């Protein structure tokens, strides 16, 4: 079967547009074949703006940080799309990040991550953002961690 150059360009254009518009987004962010546990990490009624809640996910060896930002965020849940969670392991060398002053800070080498922009790194030695923890909210306001988008530092597999 001979494929024309025009057909190759059409297919590549379609794939590019799908990735830019978010179609198939889940396949690009995490391996859909992994089965993550659903764990309750909080309740929307107990959250206060910019007060972090620490929890372990997807297992006892990995700390996560849940925070209500008070402004919309990429991947945010809740009425205002402002509740997000991320792995607390810095992507530079695995130090535990902290939430202070509206950002995630690594005390070891001073990397900073923007929680409203999917924890993208904007300063320091880290080269990638923090893995985002997918959240879901039940009707009673309970917040559940459901999966991890990205690889937690120091691991070959998240689970």
From TrEMBL:
Annotated keywords: 2Fe-2S, Disulfide bond, Iron, Iron-sulfur, Metal-binding, Oxidoreductase
The keyword Acyltransferase is annotated on this UniProt entry: no
EC number: 1.20.9.1
InterPro entries: AioB/IdrB_ssu, Rieske_2Fe-2S, Rieske_2Fe-2S_sf, Rieske_Fe-S_prot
Gene3D superfamilies, A to Z: Rieske [2Fe-2S] iron-sulphur domain (2.102.10.10)
Enzyme category, top tier: oxidoreductase
Gene Ontology terms for molecular function: arsenate reductase (azurin) activity
Pfam families: Rieske
Domain spans labelled Rieske: 56-144
NCBIfam families per the UniProt record, alphabetical: arsenite_ox_S
Protein name: Arsenite oxidase subunit AioB
Organism for this UniProt entry: Meiothermus hypogaeus
Gene name per UniProt: aioB_3
């Amino acid at each position: 079967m001979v494929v024309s150059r025009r057909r190759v360009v059409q297919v590549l254009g379609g794939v590019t547009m799908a990735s830019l518009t978010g179609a198939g987004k889940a396949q690009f962010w995490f391996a859909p074949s992994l089965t993550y546990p659903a764990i309750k990490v909080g309740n929307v009624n107990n959250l206060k703006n910019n007060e972090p809640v620490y929890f372990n996910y997807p297992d006892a060896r990995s700390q996560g940080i849940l925070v209500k930002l008070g402004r919309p965020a990429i991947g945010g849940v809740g009425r205002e799309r402002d509740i997000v969670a991320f792995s607390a392991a810095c992507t530079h060398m695995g130090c535990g990040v902290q939430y202070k002053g509206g950002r995630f800070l690594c005390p070891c080498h001073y990397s900073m991550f923007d929680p409203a922009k999917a924890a993208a790194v904007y300063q320091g030695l880290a080269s990638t953002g923090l893995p985002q923890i997918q959240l879901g909210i039940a009707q009673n306001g309970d917040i559940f961690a459901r999966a991890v988008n990205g690889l937690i530092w120091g691991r070959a597999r998240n689970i």
